Amino acid sequence: MNDKNLKDIIIGVLALQGAFREHVEAIKKLKVKAIEIRNTGQLKGIDGLIIPGGESTTIYKLLTKYSFKPALERFISLKKPIFGTCAGLVILARKVINEDFGYGFMDIVVDRNAYGRQVDSFESLLDLKGEERLNHRKFNAVFIRAPKIIRAGINVKILGTLDDDIVIARENNILVCSFHPELTGDLRIHRYFIDMVKNSKNVKI
To answer: What is the mean pLDDT of residues 168-189?
Structure first.
């Protein structure tokens, strides 16, 4: 990645609850500025947003309390990328099984906590597909109370699977994964998201 093209990019990480600090550190390791987002006004100053893993019900309630949904709709209308991991994936989904939340920003149906409780957390090597920038090497993914994508719309691009289940996918400027890439030393997925942000700003890669 050409560092010269990164100096004007700012990535925001939603910092209401969950594993936001680890995302901030991952972005900084890639020599990109990262800031913690705690109010809607801060969205105006960033080029891409990460919604981290955590407790999805808590994050949803806090987003509602601070009126984030209209601001996120505006953010997406400006073609700015969003990356949702674990609970962030749940928030962005069109439908969440047996739940009344899911913002509908991505055409996926999700089963929340489908991989089990905290005690059922695990790591697994998964295949990254479809994008040369992900290098097609296996990724050591960390699953913690992870959701599962059980259906995806025709415009959703599948980027990775685990036992034929979709665990990382993209639709336009929205990227989601079921696991926690910020808990590994492998920065490929964060780098891929930064490339999405660069493209959205019409910066040559």
So the answer is: 95
Nearest to 121 by CA among 152, 92, 72, 86: 86
- Residue 205 belongs to some domain of the structure: no
CA distances from 36 to 19, 42, 45, 168 (A): 11, 9, 12, 24
* Residues with catalytic function: 86, 180, 182
Domain assignment of residue 40, yes or no: yes
Q: Which domain holds residue 42?
A: 3-200
pTM of the model: 0.92
**CATH code for the domain in which residue 98 is found:** 3.40.50.880
Distance CA 180, CA 201 (A): 26
Instruction: Tell me the average pLDDT of the chain.
Output: 89
Residue 27 has pLDDT above 60, yes or no: yes
Retrieve residue 76's tokens. Answer: 């997406």
Whole-angstrom Cα distance, residue 28 to residue 26? Answer: 5
pLDDT of 117 above 70: no
Helix (H) or strand (E) segment spanning residue 88: helix 87-92
What is the C-alpha separation between 192 and 11, in angstroms, rounded?
Answer: 13
